[in-house]
Request: fold
Amino acid sequence: MKEAMFYESTSENGVRCNLCNHRCKIKEGKRGICGVRENRGGKLYSLVYGKIIAEHIDPIEKKPLFNFLPGSRAFSIGTVGCNFHCKHCQNSDISQYPHEHGGEVIGQDRNPDQIVTAAIAAGCETIAYTYTEPTIFYEFAYDTAVLARMQGIKNVFVSNGYMSSEGARQIAPYLDAINVNLKAFTDKSYKEVCGARLNPVLETILLMKELDVWVEVTTLIIPGLNDGEQELRDIARFVKSVGPEIPWHVSQFYPAYKLLDRPSTPAATLRRAREIGMEEGLRYVYEGNVPGEGGENTHCYACGALLIERYGLTLTRNRLQDGKCPECGARIDGLLPSGCGKYEPS
Reply:
């Protein structure tokens, strides 16, 4: 347990948590929407500091980050709890654990030094704060990220984008990349499916770009929910307005948790979403969860040449030369390998 960052006192021993855009008002002895930040005696505490529930070595493509250190490995960590309650959550067993187990918080005790040491020992170039929303274990993520940066390890968030601007600005100097899950483009969908609002997510994407964090965006396409052509076009246009170089991942939904009444996303829908993204001027649009269809590959935005081939999450061929297209010389956006085998920003 550690005293939380980003909170203020209110009347009668209450507090307001300002870590995410719910900005929960929390009474004495109660917790916020995330289920892991509790008011004890007028002070707000993180109950998940160092309580790691998931710890794995993943390909960076699993985050998914395709224009950031492609083919590298990420040391991935997460805790229980989440500030969203998505009906289709694929990690509901940990994200909703406190809510479904009487407030219990579980996890293996770790400190930031142990995480960084383990990442280095495993040959990982990055530490990924993922599996659940990293904002809810912000204090531990922040301390770990600062230490990781000192040791030459990069940091990435896999996020729902609901962190407050205060939280985003403080972590940004130590954050190298973020994948924001843009789940839909209507407030109605956000409220009904996630228990949140759309606009704060859009603001986070804009802010992270402004703060020079490499941004990629993922949309899980759910049949009958967010798969309409106009909504997909609206998402693509928004991403383009932030920056045409931002990769957009359009991923296949499969029934999970409380959203079991909808079918998996047809591959044809993903292909059409990719076409829409390209039509709207995005340089990189990737199809996720459908290996072997070719939608995972990176092409040159200038001449169309195939640059990076993937099968699912595995990089099988990389033709980049010093971060450039070998055919036309265009510099490809992101953090990409140079010809000498090291990584340099492009």
